[in-house]
Amino acid sequence: MKYYGGCDVGSTYTKAVILDETGRIAASTILRSKINAAQSSHLAMEQCLSQIPELAKPEDLAYIVGTGYGRNRVPFAHENISEISCHAMGVHITDPTVKAIIDIGGQDIKGIAVAPDGTVKNFAMNDKCAAGTGRFYEAMAHSFEMSLEEFSTLSLKAKNVIPITAQCTVFAESEVIALVGEGKAPEEIAAGIQMAVAKRCFVMAKKAGAINQITLTGGCAKNEGLKKAIEKVLKLKVVELKTDPQLMGALGAAEFARKKGGKTA
Question: Measuring CA to CA, which of 58, 112, 144, 225 is 20 to 30 A from 202?
């Protein structure tokens, strides 16, 4: 049995997936990224390899593709492919009916339209500001003195929405702290935050033409409050993936590796 690897080195988390010859996920892992991208990729792949007895080192894999923010610093990769292409492919093999993706990473938001074969039809990306990204949510959770998991469900309890006007992460955090100090309901402030991010996601999706049969990828896809807000803004149901949405980039990279490695075998 031959195995193929994908390693997605993000600014916040590093993910790795190993597929067997049939395309089945044989191993996967998600870990917090280190300052050094090469170290992050090694740690993630080592965790994956430990799940498969017959594999001991990256060289035991037939082919490996690196992707993500640090894709050029995955030392054992045979090649690297953009995370936009890898997310599209990962979603496509998970659910071929999905035609659009909103990917919310640690430092950017992407809207991706997916072609019938899993390639990228079109995309739009906001990478000039951290507002609405994973880093933004970490700052917001810190403002509420909560974990990310607690904050992601806080807005679900809100009866009203308090609008958040600031777009910049720093100014938004100051605005939130001021609202909390005024005694405003935390869940209603959180609802305002989720709605502001949802509108930002909608803009990226619309620019890419990605507004039908849409799903969420990246760590923020697990944010239930954001998902509900996006559904409200888009006026449609977001497709839930059967595989962890945070793994989509690594999964797509592994699938590219399987296709390319199979040809070179």
Answer: 144
pLDDT in tens, 45-76: 999 999 999 999 999 999 999 999 899 999 99
Residue with tokens 């994908």: 6
pTM: 0.91
**Separation of CA 16 from chain center:** 13
Same domain, 205 and 257: no
DSSP state of 240: P
pLDDT tens-digit readout, 123-162: 998 765 556 677 788 888 888 888 988 999 999 999 999 9
Q: Which CATH number belongs to the domain containing residue 211 in this structure?
A: 3.30.420.40
Under 8 Å between Cβ of 208 and 174? no
Structure tokens at 143: 């403002």
Whether 218 contacts 245, CB under 8 Å: yes
Task: Tell whether 162 and 252 lie within a shared domain.
Answer: no
Are the C-beta atoms of 103 and 110 separated by less than 8 Å? yes
Same domain, 109 and 31: no
